[in-house]
């Protein structure tokens, strides 16, 4: 079996890969951090689809036929497009598995990128399943700040703004895989239960056959920089290779 492809714009996907590696030490993965196009969340739907098409074609060229979009923006804006353009590949998003964790709620706050909020993907899924009020809050600068390793003072300023509208919700969805990296700061500003994509992604690999082997990390930008980011944030020393996407 070929490795499973994992795709995101940067550090958010790294958190998914490391969580999967901890849960399944022998799971073979190839991770592509498309940092040259980060952040995705401030781009148009068409731009996101075009970027995703190139990235999936890169995986296809590696002989990889199963790819997890470890990115809410890509999942909410490009999943159907990718299914149409790559019908022989298994391409999975993370919106459904994230929403399915919520069994009951009166008010759900969704903190996500501008593009994810504009798609209303979370709002639509939640209202289909639950009789809950949904408050959507875009956080246009948060991914760039996390990727840039912004200090807590600067993060606190923007999070005070972003979390204000959702602070009283009984459930808060972190609708971007980057956001769990600042989960503690968000938790200080909201009162509800915080839900993210990491645990349901881990659960999705239970009771299924998966490829065994190594984990290989690529970035479309600067491998040395991503290595340093991973060492600073995750305290992990890993090798990162250059991934050239056409």
Question: Layout of helices and strands, plus pairs?
Answer:
Blueprint: E1 4-8, H1 11-23, E2 29-33, H2 45-61, E3 66-69, H3 72-85, E4 90-92, H4 95-99, E5 107-112, H5 114-119, H6 121-129, E6 133-138, H7 142-147, H8 152-162, E7 171-175, H9 183-187, E8 193-195, H10 198-203, E9 215-219, H11 223-234, E10 240-242
Parallel strand pairs: 1-2, 1-3, 2-9, 3-4, 5-6, 5-7, 7-8, 9-10
Helix pairs in contact: 2-3
Q: How would you describe this structure in keywords?
A:
2 domains, 11 helices, globular, Rossmann fold, four-stranded parallel β-sheet, 246 residues, 18% strand, alpha/beta, 10 strands, six-stranded parallel β-sheet
Structure description:
Helix 1 links the parallel strand 1 (4-8) and strand 2. The longest helix is centred in the first third of the chain and has 17 residues, at 45-61. Helix 2 packs across helix 3. The strands form 2 sheets. A 6-stranded parallel β-sheet has the order 4-3-1-2-9-10, with helices on both faces. It has a 4-stranded parallel β-sheet with strand order 6-5-7-8. It has 2 domains: 4-94 and 200-242, Rossmann fold (3-Layer(aba) Sandwich); 96-196, Rossmann fold (3-Layer(aba) Sandwich). The protein is α/β, with parallel strands linked by helices. It has 11 helices and 10 strands. The protein has helices at residues 11-23, 45-61, 72-85, 95-99, 114-119, 121-129, 142-147, 152-162, 183-187, 198-203, 223-234; strands at residues 4-8, 29-33, 66-69, 90-92, 107-112, 133-138, 171-175, 193-195, 215-219, 240-242. 42% of the residues lie in helices and 18% in strands.
